[in-house]
Design brief:
The radius of gyration is 24 Å and the shape is globular. Strand 18, helix 9 and strand 19 form a beta-alpha-beta unit. Helix 3 runs parallel beside helix 11. It is an alpha+beta fold and about 350 residues long. The chain starts with a strand and ends in a 16-residue tail after the last strand. The strands form 5 sheets. It has a 5-stranded parallel sheet. A 4-stranded antiparallel sheet has the order 1-2-8-4. A 4-stranded antiparallel sheet has the order 3-7-5-6, with no helix packed on it. The chain has 11 helices and 21 strands. The chain folds into 3 domains: about 100 residues, Jelly Rolls (Sandwich); about 80 residues, Jelly Rolls (Sandwich); about 100 residues, Oxidized Rhodanese, domain 1 (3-Layer(aba) Sandwich), CATH 3.40.250.10. Helices cover about 25% and strands about 25% of the residues.
């Protein structure tokens, strides 16, 4: 098997990757794993739990079901726009017919990016609509592109801005010092900071290694690792920093409380009158969904949530549970009673086989 890479335009042909914005596609591109296979090679077998989402880039593959059914998929066909044998555990054997190349993504990571990307749109709308943020919009929106935010549950994004505290700083002022213990991190609202590291002992001279600008973080690595600061950061100009204390940082990395249901419990809720709520994209829904489900993609949830019965009960699902967890949080704040299918559709397809359409 050989490894290679692909470009962004090819990623945009796949479902649901095609729902991502440009910035998130760039980040996903860094996570790709492209593999080539020879004729007869096995890509996966029935019963495998590899938690990966696989798309066919070139060539042909055969899928063999447990009942002996054979499906041939060729790159470029509409079937190849969707993941190969997507459910976990795998329900098919998949073999290369000739030379084949595929791209693989961690399923949970992909669903996390989808959830974050679609939720960020709501945050940007709130920032633009809130008069209190009129002087802060530029750095706030730039901050949303930070990779650190992929660690933050989407439901907590706005809460970060509420907990930040402003600190005015002068040129030359040391903000954090290499070797000290961390109790907070900072975001640059105005000004420029210089990052320097000392490679030798205390008498060694600090070496500048980077300049940080408006909308960038610093100090979060020490909070995440629990280790001392690994660099000294000094104000290169006068400016304003936004401080986030350790206890707030830790709290905002934790998932908000939502109610999850195992597939058996979810079935009971449905039998009692609850409804399935599919928050995946329309393309994913059209490919396969649970019978009776209402499809409202996460990215359209705020606009279309009024279509849901405020007196009804819903069991939300997506691929892995990431997007549906965000949806449940948003709908809970809107006063709806929503549970989440634990593990998502991919991990419960066998248990919910009779609901699949």
């Amino acid at each position: 098997m050989a490894h290679q890479s692909i470009d962004k335009s090819l990623l945009q042909t796949f479902v649901p990757v095609n729902a991502l914005s440009g910035d998130q596609l760039d980040w996903l591109l860094d996570q790709q794993e492209v593999r080539r296979y020879e004729a007869g090679d096995v890509l996966f077998r029935q019963g495998d739990r590899d938690n990966t989402t696989i798309y066919l880039l070139s060539g042909e593959v055969e899928l063999f079901s447990e009942h002996g059914e054979r499906t041939l998929i060729s790159a470029g066909d509409s079937a190849s726009w969707h993941p190969l044998g997507h459910f976990q555990p795998r329900r098919d054997d998949c073999k290369a017919v000739g030379e084949v190349s595929v791209v693989r993504f961690d399923s949970f990571r992909l669903d996390t990016i989808l959830s974050w990307d679609q939720s960020a749109g709501y945050v940007i709308l709130d920032i633009n609509a809130n008069a209190a943020y009129q002087h802060d919009r530029e750095w706030m929106i730039r901050l949303l592109k930070s990779k650190l935010f992929h660690r933050v549950p989407p439901a907590n994004i706005l809460e970060i801005f509420r907990r930040l505290r402003a600190r005015r700083c002068k040129e030359g002022e040391a903000i954090v010092t290499q070797g000290e213990q961390a109790d907070c991190c900072y975001i640059i609202k105005e000004g420029v900071c210089e990052v320097a590291i000392t490679l030798g002992g205390e008498s060694s001279e600090a070496m500048p290694v980077a300049m940080l600008e408006e909308g960038q973080w610093f100090g979060e690595e020490a909070l995440l690792s629990g280790k001392p600061r690994n660099a000294t950061v000094t104000m290169a100009t006068d400016g304003v920093l936004m401080r986030l204390d350790r206890q707030d940082f830790d709290a905002l990395l934790r998932e908000p409380v939502i109610h999850t249901l195992a597939p058996g419990d979810a079935r009971e809720r449905i039998d009692e009158g609850a409804r399935w709520l599919d928050v995946r994209t329309a393309d994913e829904f059209d490919q396969q969904h649970l019978a009776g489900a209402t499809n409202i993609p996460l990215g359209a949830l705020r606009l279309k949530s009024r279509l849901l019965d405020p007196a009804g009960r819903y069991v939300a699902y997506c691929d892995t549970g990431r997007r549906s967890a965000t949806a449940a949080f948003l709908l809970k704040n809107a006063g709806l009673d929503v549970f989440v299918l634990d593990g998502g559709l991919n991990n419960n397809a066998d248990t919910l086989q009779d609901y699949l359409k």
